[in-house]
Specification:
Alpha-Beta Plaits; binds glyoxylic acid; 4-stranded antiparallel beta sheet; 9-stranded mixed beta sheet; Amidase_Cbmase; Peptidase_M20_dimer; 2 domains; Bact_exopeptidase_dim_dom; 34% helix; binds manganese (II) ion; 12 helices; alpha/beta; Aminopeptidase; hydrolase activity, acting on carbon-nitrogen (but not peptide) bonds, in linear amidines
């Protein structure tokens, strides 16, 4: 498909003078951001909370207003389909759950842009050859339940629904109970039939596009993700009376692990990133050497071999630290996904269409996890990135210029149209 495809002969929606509506796109982004509002203008809609339910209700209302068929599956994924044409749908979408300090664009853009594409085509009287669907996938963030991308993973059959329903949240809630409680334990089949193709519009969430002055990212894949929770058990004691030589201090070891993660990321360089995002101490008091510490490790790389190597060095280091301090350490895997390569034909199509829209474009991997990486297991998939100002995300200051949002959504429209009118053989590279 890629550059050899004569999509210029295809009469794309943009060639017929159609553009998505900036006002509608921004209006919906604004309206969704008012649900779960937090200081600084972002939102907190942790998965399957009341705020997430309210956000879902709003999106479902939009879908129904557009006349889409709305299906909700057993893990709470919402799929809105414009049931026209024949065959399996071209799907887009993303998520509307957020981290606790979420911005206005992460995930929301992909869902709202999908609706915007459909509304624009409908208003123009253009009917694609295949159905078009917009997916809203459950718990993409992985902030409340692990693993991340959980809804899309179950959607493609990567985890059995029954076991996922027992997942315990960071606040002790059970996923299946929460789905029932908010009214999103649906009956549509999950796993579901594979779409014809999947394309997700998302903000980059990193600094590269802005730094290089490029307007669109044609995403080649997603780096591997390794999440674990480490629990350190030591000896709680008096902070004033316990000699330093007699301590078995979990807080100290948690700090050593965090420092080691920074060191090893620096040592490997390249795409290696390591983060300690959460540390809980018990009893968490100023004058008590803690009894225990629990921390999370987020380790990512585009190269699976290097990622394994780094994971193994971290494991060795943790064992050494445990012995030296006389504490016991256990760990549990919260998520582990290998790097994913997107379908080169779909990425090439995005690149060509960005050029056609007179936007500068570059191929790039994604540093963040995305639902598209799960859909890539079952159908040709790729992503369109728009620049993030100062590369800030998972932060209320997350921002993307309107011009970039509009261009990204117009490119999404043409990409979905082209995918609906092209036949192609899925390429390998899917994991
Ligand atoms: C999802 O936002 C991630 O952590 O990559
Ligand atoms: Mn996201
Ligand atoms: Mn995110």
């Amino acid at each position: 498909m890629a550059s050899a495809v004569p999509f210029l002969e295809m009469n794309l929606p943009s060639m017929q003078g159609n553009s998505i509506s900036q006002d509608r796109l921004l209006g919906r982004l604004d309206e969704l951001a008012t649900i779960g509002p937090i200081d600084g203008g972002g939102s907190c809609r942790l998965a399957l909370t009341d705020a997430d339910r309210d956000g879902r209700d709003l999106v479902v209302t939009w879908m129904k207003d557009l006349g889409l068929e709305v299906a909700i599956d057993g893990v709470g994924n919402i799929i809105g389909t414009w049931n026209v044409g024949t065959g399996s749908p071209v799907m887009t979408g993303s998520h509307i759950d957020t981290v606790r300090t979420g911005g206005r664009f992460d995930g929301n853009l992909g869902v709202i842009a999908g609706l915007e594409v459909i509304e624009t085509l409908m208003a123009a009287g253009l009917t694609p050859a295949r159905p078009l669907s917009v997916g809203v996938f459950t718990n993409e963030e992985g902030a409340r339940f692990q693993p991340d991308m959980l809804g899309s993973l179950v959607y493609v059959g990567g985890l059995p629904l029954e076991s996922v329903l027992d997942t315990i949240a960071i606040d002790g809630a059970v996923l299946g109970d929460e789905l029932q409680r908010i009214g999103y334990a649906g009956s549509a089949p999950c796993p579901s039939a594979a779409p014809h193709a999947f394309v997700e519009l998302h903000i980059e969430q990193g600094p590269r596009l802005e730094a290089e002055g490029i307007q669109i990212g044609a995403v080649t894949g997603v780096q591997g993700i390794s999440w674990q929770e480490v629990t350190i058990a030591g000896q709680s004691n008096h902070a004033g009376t316990t000699p330093m030589s007699l301590r078995h201090d979990p807080a100290y070891i948690a700090a050593e692990i965090a420092v080691y993660l920074r060191q090893i990321a620096n040592e490997y360089g390249g795409n290696q990133v390591c983060t300690v995002g959460k540390i809980d101490l018990h009893p968490n008091l100023i004058n008590v050497v803690p009894k225990s510490a629990t921390l999370t490790l987020d380790v990512r790389n585009t190269d699976e071999k290097i990622l394994c190597e780094v994971e193994s060095k971290i494991t060795q280091k943790i064992a050494q630290l445990a012995t030296a301090e006389g504490v016991s350490i256990s760990s549990r895997v919260l998520a582990r996904f290998e790097p994913v390569e997107f379908d080169d034909q779909v990425t090439g199509l995005i690149e060509d269409l960005a050029n056609h829209h007179n936007r500068s474009v570059m191929r790039m991997p994604s540093g963040a996890g995305h639902d598209a990486q799960m859909l890539a297991r079952v159908c040709p998939s790729s992503m369109i990135f728009t620049p993030s100002v100062q590369g800030i995300s998972h932060n209320t200051a997350e921002f993307t210029h309107t011009d970039d949002l509009v261009a990204g959504t117009n490119i999404l429209m043409d990409t979905m149209w082209a995918l609906a009118h092209l036949d192609f053989t899925p390429q390998t590279g899917m994991k």
